[in-house]
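Ticket reopened. Same input as before:
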Amino acid sequence: MEDEVDRLVAAWRRERPDLDVEPLEVLSRVSRLARHLDRARRLAFAEHSLEPWEFDVLTSLRRAGAPYQLSPGQLLTQTLVTSGTMTNRIDRLAQKGLVERLPDPTDRRGVLVRLTPEGQDRADEALAGLLAQERAILGELTDRQRAELASLLRQLTAPFDNVPG
Amino acid sequence: MEDEVDRLVAAWRRERPDLDVEPLEVLSRVSRLARHLDRARRLAFAEHSLEPWEFDVLTSLRRAGAPYQLSPGQLLTQTLVTSGTMTNRIDRLAQKGLVERLPDPTDRRGVLVRLTPEGQDRADEALAGLLAQERAILGELTDRQRAELASLLRQLTAPFDNVPG
DNA sequence: CCCATATATCTTGATGTCAAGAGACTTCAT
DNA sequence: ATGAAGTCTCTTGACATCAAGATATATGGG
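Engineering reply: fixed in the latest deploy. New output:
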């Protein structure tokens, strides 16, 4: 079946027949698929009244394991946002009762952000919903194809994930 | 080589051994790779003093073929932004002399946005730079692997691209 | 002990985006 | 013709984000 990238590539080949636009076949599909996934996830999370950014913060804490707490600094390295954004996010999550701020007992400059029991439940529910949706999106592929895709994608992401930047 | 998603999946398997998180192996990699690509593209475009959104608009017009003009409405279906955003983008591109607004001769409500000669040059230069960068990112893969990846990704994107939404 | 430097978090101001709606014009049924 | 509904673009107001800097605390060399 044809997709938007086929049309995009065809347009470039018509307008710029001198250029080799083959890289777009892979990387434009990655970007466009990510956009579609963002929208789909937003819908899935909305069923649990969570925004994507809320899911990111709550699940970062959830994955940390009991007692489900991290410093704002650790959270911002995990979620790749700036400190101003993280302050704002913690404020709103605390107001909704999903996390709470605790003084760091070992550093008086510091704060610890801890998942409340309700925050933990919401994170767990939303994760289950997300996985159900993702299984549906991947439904067309065989196990063999999923493994192949994961492996090829890992080859592309590993260089980014294993440098300081 | 290990990547961030391997670590993410390992954390979930430790904290939620009851869940099958295998879908993340594919779809989290897609999202994370897209984030990396966004950053890389921003850098590539910066060498031509273009923002990613400027590239999107200019190349949409470029792909339309001579005389390189589209209505704001056509531009926003291509770039998936709202009309308010598009008005703002056209304003700024016109101010920089990369596009110009013309009255639509067939509909007095309408406007046509046309690429200026400078806008066309900038779009062409930035596209060449982008393709060079993308070839470097894909450098690790064989032709066979790229084709395989493109084909698998097309299977995932086609359902999104061939429905009204 | 003291000061310079580093670290952790929060605050401020600017920006780009979106959602909703306004204004101008067109289209179509009557 | 005429009025209602549709279409196209732009305006407005709210919001999340970022970059830069402020505040408070910690750390280590002299």
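Residues 71-73, 83-84, 86-87, 104, 107, 109-111 of chain A lie near DNA strand C (CB under 10 Å from a C1'). The helical segments of chain A are 4-15, 23-46, 52-63, 72-79, 83-95, 117-137, 143-161. Please confirm and we'll close it.
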